[in-house]
Amino acid sequence: MVTVSDELVPAREPWSKVVRAGERLQIIDLHGNQAVDCLLYDATDHTRRYSAQATVAAQRNIFVGTGSVLRAADGSALMTVVADDVGNHDTIAGACSQESNTLRYGHHTAHQHACVENFLAEGARYGLGKRDLVSNINWFMNVPVEPDGTLGIVDGISAPGKSLTLRAEIDTLVLVSNCPQINNPCNGFDPTPVRMVITRE
């Protein structure tokens, strides 16, 4: 494999890159227990984007892991999870925002930076705005579903150095927010850096 890109994403910061068809993106949880929010777009047509609904329906599972195909609304494949040290990643809890922080944790959190703001800032580089944001994937985030349908956000099941690898099926724009959340245990209340490595054969 040839390394195309190898970058460190600081705690709380956004990241983006176009991953070309056939290339692989490895996301490495350097310190463990760090949630990484992610959106995917067709690099040539941003209206074709990751659909949580199409992905969940096609695989009949609300969690993603090795073998999961991340699909657009028309069912076409954007990326495939080809390796995964953790085995359980969230598709339904969504991205934190300043508004949701205020609602969940109180008005004193209104000033705190959040994933939606990261997505908007990074997406603007590609002409994307608020209407282009959809339900995202939360890599490494542990969101169990109780028998009564209640969702929890609990301590992660990742660990230092664990990773997952995605293969691009088409040229795919990947937007990431290295989650800044400090009000719930998705990051162990202490956001940390992650590493993004793109390779090709």
Automatic annotation (TrEMBL):
Pfam families: DUF1989. Residues 8-173 form the DUF1989 domain. It comes from the Bacteria. This is DUF1989 domain-containing protein. It comes from Mycolicibacter sinensis (strain JDM601) (Mycobacterium sinense).
